[in-house]
Amino acid sequence: MMALEKGIVWGADVVMLQEFFEKEGYPISHPGYRLVRGGRTMTAIRRDTHLEFSEVDKGGEGDVQVFGIKYPSGRKMRLVNVYDQLRQEGGVRSQGRPAQSARWNEIMEQDNILVGGDWNAHSDRWDRQCPPRRDDRFLTNLLDEYDLIDVTDGEETHTYTRNGETSGSLIDFFITKASMVDNLETATDLATNSDHAIVCAHLRWDEGEGAKVSRKITGWDIDGL
Length: 225
Fold this sequence. Notes:
Blueprint: H1 2-10, E1 14-18, E2 33-37, E3 41-46, E4 52-56, E5 64-70, E6 76-83, E7 88-89, E8 92-93, H2 104-107, E9 113-118, H3 137-145, E10 148-151, E11 158-162, E12 165-169, E13 172-177, H4 178-181, E14 184-189, E15 198-206, E16 211-220
Parallel strand pairs: 1-16, 6-9
Antiparallel strand pairs: 1-3, 2-3, 4-5, 5-6, 7-8, 9-13, 10-13, 11-12, 14-15, 15-16
């Protein structure tokens, strides 16, 4: 399980997973992380983290997980794990994206907020090498309505092969508010055996004791990792 193992190596407090798969009778577990399952999202919280976590239900049918985080200093923030994709019924994609039905107006009430996941949205707004725009309206409107900023390092995060040709796109990344941007660094790790990269976010707060670093990584398609 590469995403969780890299989380341990990198000292990540949180690993956010989307589109994970568990074989019947063989649930995923990890000695270093407590796993909180949604629908098609799962959030792994480091067992020895110095942060306090509380899950908040904001809808989204399990494709959106929302957590309140409290630092030892008392500082608070909100972390959101998103998988924005069509529903699946009997292994076949159908109409409607459950993540878009979440109560985003309530989710965005927190100023210190970090939202990450697999958006399955294509636009040259966040991907300079973007093919024709597709499925980007929800994310574009979210960014505009709440003055959010997409934070990427420009690396493609998803590769796929069609008709013998391999292509890539940037669909997995974090978004946040302006108040958080200066404290946030991201990096993309392409060294996976999945069709999605792992994206790492370093959140640096000055807690009065030097720079404190909280790392949150987002991994996709855990079955392929």
